[in-house]
Design the sequence.
């Protein structure tokens, strides 16, 4: 076979060598397959790649990485491709190969006594949750994209989600890791120990590195007991300050039972009701803000429902809550959760939107929302703020929908100015410009401002030490 160049770096010889490792099933070169893997779901970035490589096990991943390293070809690792920040799209010049983790899809081990699962990178988060549930356990991580997002990506971006208030982020669940390093070495770190105090914590270096240091191929995750009782309520409140008051009431009553405390704006919820089939408001009339509160306990007969009602009655009597609906069945619980989970999709259908995945101390959420809303309205009359998200951990998705009559392309071109307005308020409250979505391709330009000096310099030294040739997910995270 002649060694024709497909791109400046990818040659037919390399493609054939990879095919010899992964077989026909492991290599997609058809433009319809490579096109899907070259774009993010938000359609912010359109790259190009000549092949999507789908290794079936860790050894194949390592062999592919070695071949690419020898040829100097960069690799973009891709799981479910659900990144909010373009973290898994290849470059436009076609110089990078996409390595899909989809076929690394085995649950290797699940131990209900150790309360751990050893799981490969390509298992979807949903499938991992179901596997844990089969053994009476709960994998306590839940995000809107869990049906598609894969464990490798979830860990690579240190996903947060709905249960951080109780269980922390993805990084808090990782006991062990297996990863392929940029030179093709396999690091076998799949220990499932609760105590292992042996030098630098390497697994946490890979969690949150967004594929820039190596490829996560498997992990040991911590599980918790499956809840025996779950109670969910959907509450209407006048202001975000009232939502905070409600949160404090639940904390004071029984902080350990709170498994989610999510905020939604009236406007954002109206988009869900309008654009998502079969979505209905479980209350008589709309309100400026809503809260979804979920309590859960592994204790049987804990009277959680009574507990929930007791707090709500107090809050209703005090005028903190205007109205509330408590789910009576699994179906009602799912319907309430759907109102929250479909926020992103509904915003996409409503028009162009700019996302701000930010965090502030929980106590500052109401002030942040009020001030950021005013700042954006002053910047662009008619702009529609739709704050929502994980109020219980301080992570608000302060998304902004285009003014009704605006041109979407023009609106999206204003994104840096809009983001900066929001971030002025985030700074004031010592918050973060990226709470749970990561940096990807969207936010590296913000790193010098927010993490410059010693912090960014140290990150660069770590990157240079582990991936000196810059072959792992180039252009992501670091500016
Ligand atoms: C969510 O919590 O639903 C996503 O992280 C939100 C987003 O669209 O910004
Ligand atoms: Zn979120």
Sequence:
């Amino acid at each position: 076979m002649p060694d024709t160049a497909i791109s400046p770096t990818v040659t037919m010889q390399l493609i054939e060598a990879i095919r010899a490792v992964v077989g026909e099933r492991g290599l997609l070169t058809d433009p319809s397959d490579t096109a899907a893997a070259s774009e993010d779901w938000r359609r912010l970035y359109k790259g190009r790649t000549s092949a999507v490589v789908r290794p079936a096990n860790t050894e194949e991943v390592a062999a592919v990485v070695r071949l690419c390293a020898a040829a100097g070809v960069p690799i973009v690792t891709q799981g479910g491709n659900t990144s909010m920040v373009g973290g898994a799209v290849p470059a436009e010049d076609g110089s990078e190969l996409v390595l899909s983790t989809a076929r690394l899809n085995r649950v290797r081990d699940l131990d209900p006594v150790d309360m751990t699962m050893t799981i490969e990178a390509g298992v979807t988060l949903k499938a991992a949750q179901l596997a844990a549930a089969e053994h009476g356990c709960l994998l306590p991580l839940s995000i809107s994209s869990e049906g598609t997002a894969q464990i490798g990506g979830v860990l690579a971006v240190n996903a947060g989600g709905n249960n951080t208030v109780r269980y922390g982020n993805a990084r808090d669940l990782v006991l062990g890791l297996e990863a392929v390093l940029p030179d093709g070495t396999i690091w076998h770190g799949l220990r499932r120990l609760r105590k292992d105090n042996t030098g630098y914590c390497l697994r946490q270096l890979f969690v949150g590195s967004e594929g820039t240091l190596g490829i996560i191929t498997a992990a040991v995750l911590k599980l918790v007991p499956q809840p025996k009782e779950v109670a969910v309520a959907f509450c209407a409140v006048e202001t975000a300050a009232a939502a905070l008051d409600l949160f404090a009431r639940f904390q004071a009553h029984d902080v350990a039972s709170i498994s989610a405390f999510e905020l939604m704006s009236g406007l954002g919820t109206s988009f869900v009701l309008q654009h998502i089939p079969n979505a209905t408001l479980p209350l008589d009339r709309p309100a400026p803000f809503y809260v979804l509160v979920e309590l859960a306990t592994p204790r049987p007969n804990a009277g959680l429902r009574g507990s929930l009602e007791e707090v709500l009655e107090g809050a209703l009597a005090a005028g903190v809550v205007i109205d509330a609906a408590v789910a009576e069945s699994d179906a009602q619980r799912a319907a309430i959760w759907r109102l929250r989970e479909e926020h992103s999709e509904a915003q996409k259908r409503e028009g162009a939107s700019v996302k701000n995945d930010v965090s502030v101390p929980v106590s500052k959420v109401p002030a942040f929302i009020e001030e950021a809303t005013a700042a954006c309205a002053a910047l662009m009359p008619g702009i529609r703020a739709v704050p929502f998200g994980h109020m219980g951990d301080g992570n608000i998705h302060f998304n902004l929908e285009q003014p009704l009559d605006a041109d979407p392309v023009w609106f999206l071109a204003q994104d840096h100015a809009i983001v900066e307005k929001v971030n002025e308020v985030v700074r004031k409250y010592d918050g973060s410009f990226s709470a749970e979505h990561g940096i990807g391709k969207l936010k590296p330009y913000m790193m010098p401002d927010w993490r410059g000096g010693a912090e960014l310099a140290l990150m660069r030294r770590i990157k240079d030490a582990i991936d000196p040739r810059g072959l792992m997910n180039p252009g992501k995270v670091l500016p």
